[in-house]
């Protein structure tokens, strides 16, 4: 195995990459040619505690694309964990490859040894392309894996509480926009009904929302419609965005809000489970200028990380669900600060997260006996 920190990249797969000043504490490149492992672990901050974030297994078109993704995702995790009130910093990992073809016990256990080599600075969990059984294999080589399967003492599928948090944030949006947290009768468009989106549809259907959905997977659409025959399927995301909606919920991959989609939006509210929804800085201002209430993604989708963090203390579903339910109140705090300071909610959320990282993070400078 070979581990190459970003401060001294070696030859081979990761050679020739630049060294952008991103504010990260540590970026580690991991390779094990025999198992096929090529991974990047990015630690943005440990000011609040060990960096916590999932491992994404994805067929990136290039190492540069993987690096850009892990840098963005790890920074977002620092803000997500801070705003969620967790004693964790932000980190993320990506494994380059097709999980349907390249995933193996040897690869995952090799990855686990690299995570272990970081000595607890990074705690990993599931993300796109990884699941609780994968974390069980990673955990056979290190103590710093969560999101494990119930039969191994874990919490299982984190998308359940992620969706619960998105639903609570959406209720807070409805209260702010229309004076009533109920989503009954509201027309909600959900883009992506996989892990998180399908559970979100369950909550919306139970409340009597008028639901439109789209997904690139016909199987995912069929499963949702089998559970909820009243749900309407639209052809694609572009059609969904242009539909007459009250709420647009992006629940697939990132970049859903950009220079093309924002002008086309009819929805009064955007609140969904996808990561990195804003394609670039300035989109949050464009949403505000159009009168669209945007609930910042890393606030909205924190239920999953709340769940896996709870697992580290011995998982209790009701306790974790209550903590995820508090996203409702945090969303209201973000909107109140945004109005008070005259800034978009995305800026207000950043300010709240940064304030906690400063105020609580500084306490680590107070030395305790034996440290």
Automatic annotation (TrEMBL):
Keyword terms, alphabetized: NAD, Oxidoreductase
Superkingdom as given in the UniProt entry: Bacteria
Domain Glutamate/phenylalanine/leucine/valine/L-tryptophan dehydrogenase C-terminal: 156-365
Alphabetized PROSITE patterns for the sequence: GLFV_DEHYDROGENASE
InterPro entries: Aminoacid_DH-like_N_sf, Glu/Leu/Phe/Val/Trp_DH, Glu/Leu/Phe/Val/Trp_DH_C, Glu/Leu/Phe/Val/Trp_DH_dimer, Glu/Leu/Phe/Val_DH_AS, Glu/Phe/Leu/Val/Trp_DH_bac/arc, NAD(P)-bd_dom_sf
Family, as annotated: Belongs to the Glu/Leu/Phe/Val dehydrogenases family.
Descriptive protein name: Glu/Leu/Phe/Val dehydrogenase dimerization domain-containing protein
UniProt organism field: Sporichthya brevicatena
Phylogenetic lineage: Bacteria, Bacillati, Actinomycetota, Actinomycetes, Sporichthyales
